[in-house]
Amino acid sequence: MASITFDRITKRYPDGTQAVSELDLAIRDGEFLVLVGPSGCGKTTALRMAAGLEEISEGRLLIGDRVVNEVHPSQRDIAMVFQSYALYPHMSVRENIAFPLQCAGLAKAEVRERVDRAADALGLTELLERRPKALSGGQRQRVAMGRAIVRQPQAFLMDEPLSNLDAKLRGQMRAEIRNLQREYRTTTLYVTHDQVEAMTMGDRIAVLRKGVLQQLGTPEELYESPANLFVAEFIGSPPMNVLSATVTRAGSGSELLLGSQRLVLPAGALDAYPELAGADATPVALGLRPEALRDAAGADPSWPRLLADVELVENLPPEKLVHLRLDAEPVVTEATLELAADVDQAAAEDLRALGRGSVLHARLPGTTPVREGTRAQFAVPPSALHFFDLSTGQAIA
Ligand code: ATP
């Protein structure tokens, strides 16, 4: 096993496209690191450079402490798993899994033992004599995994290996890949555009945007302390609500102006933000996760209250997903539009057609008595407020 280090790596394609810019990223020995970001952000390019399939324009790539920029892919001792399984159709499952070992010239008994062990770990024992065409998509993906595992490489590189599977199977395979990685403790770099996959699988996650690393951290760190609006809106479903607001000083405490409303913050609420606590009126992008909006009834009386029109209540037992409207302006950044466009062009158009206030998403327990067409009061724990610089999108610390 070994670490994989990107040391200020840049990739420029011959046509001038800069796909990866000065990437500094170290995947620790035995770690499962997920590289995530929207389509075209440079994930595959980064992975292919690690594999040796793409030339590196600038910087150094290390596996362990060996610089491998000029080392041929076959000499890097890594195994790749792709979205397309690339199985040999004329070979049985056993032959497919054994193939790389036979190429490496391993003794027959050793090959058999390794294949049996991998098949057992992947639940393929009963299927070893079948041909790929007689397998389901999930089973084929397992064979592809098996072929990577038997080599006992120093690292796995995986590029969207689950994207051809249906949602249920994807969930199942996510867990299987994670369990296998824990068992074998093989350093893994896993590429996906799916933030749920990233959050559920990664020991740490690296978020990439337009070839530039935005943040590297554990799933909890990214969720709780996003470094900027891009990460804040990319991680989490439904995404963080982001609104234009002004923070002002009021006596010994502070207030938040949000559209026509004035939210009184309890004393000390901004202690962690000296930049805000000291200023008179600071315009900010205010971030609120959907679960930060709580039913006001029974909530801590010191928490600020927010009034909003309940437009839609979606029952999603054991929760309710509630769409609220507020007269505060949404913050529409280039990143917001990029993310919306990545999912759905119509959503991006909706964001452009502003002037109707903001729609907020709230995730409430299913028992919350909230009704469509009413105006309701919500309480917000001060610790759940996120503040970002309006012009740069960087988190205010
Ligand atoms: P996706 O999730 O859609 O696969 P990605 O994040 O993996 O995207 P890359 O495939 O690494 O992104 O592409 C990064 C950028 O480099 C994109 O702008 C892409 O168009 C560009 N690109 C990729 N391959 C080439 C190439 N051979 N020549 C020129 N530009 C390229």
TrEMBL record:
Gene Ontology molecular function terms on file: ABC-type transporter activity; ATP binding; ATP hydrolysis activity
Family matches, as Pfam families: ABC_tran (PF00005), OB_MalK (PF17912)
Listed GO biological process terms: carbohydrate transport
Keywords: ATP-binding, Cell membrane, Membrane, Nucleotide-binding, Translocase, Transport
A Gene Ontology cellular-component term: ATP-binding cassette (ABC) transporter complex, substrate-binding subunit-containing
Signal peptide region: none
Protein's UniProt keywords contain Translocase: yes
Name assigned to this protein: Carbohydrate ABC transporter ATP-binding protein, CUT1 family
Residues covered by the ABC transporter domain: 4-235
Keyword Nucleotide-binding assigned: yes
InterPro entries, sorted: AAA+_ATPase, ABC_transporter-like_ATP-bd, ABC_transporter-like_CS, ABC_transpr_MalK-like, ABC_transpr_MalK/UgpC-like, Mo/tungstate-bd_C_term_dom, OB_MalK-like, P-loop_NTPase
Alphabetized CDD domains for the sequence: ABC_MalK_N (cd03301)
Annotated source species: Geodermatophilus nigrescens
PROSITE patterns: ABC_TRANSPORTER_1 (PS00211), ABC_TRANSPORTER_2 (PS50893)
